[in-house]
Write a structure and sequence with these properties.
- The protein is α+β, with helices and mostly antiparallel strands.
- It has one domain: Arc Repressor Mutant, subunit A, CATH 1.10.10.
- Strands 1-3-2 form a 3-stranded antiparallel β-sheet.
- Strand 2 and strand 3 form a beta hairpin.
- Helix 1 crosses helix 4.
């Protein structure tokens, strides 16, 4: 059985998760980005609590964004996948 505190915590997370997904879609409508570039638009606290990479993965599974290709990431110079809106 779920405790009320767990249910409350989950219910508080839903709007933040939806907002993070919407922010990622908005960013990708402007420009294709790598995960590292997407994370630059979130605070350190948001990266730990909202987890933009997980939200991006959800958007891929929903069919709203897709992998465009690979290129050097502007944040670390490493070759990374970059994403765009479908």
């Amino acid at each position: 059985m779920l405790r009320q505190t767990s249910i409350s915590a989950y219910q508080e997370l839903i709007p933040r998760t939806v907002a993070a997904r919407n922010k990622i879609i908005s960013l990708l409508k402007r420009s294709n980005m790598t995960d590292g570039e997407i994370c630059q638009h979130f605070s350190d606290h948001e990266i730990k609590t909202i987890q933009p990479r997980a939200r991006r993965n959800e958007l891929v599974k929903m069919g709203l964004i897709k992998e465009i290709g690979k290129r050097p990431c502007l944040t670390n110079g490493k070759m990374c996948h970059f994403w765009g809106v479908v």
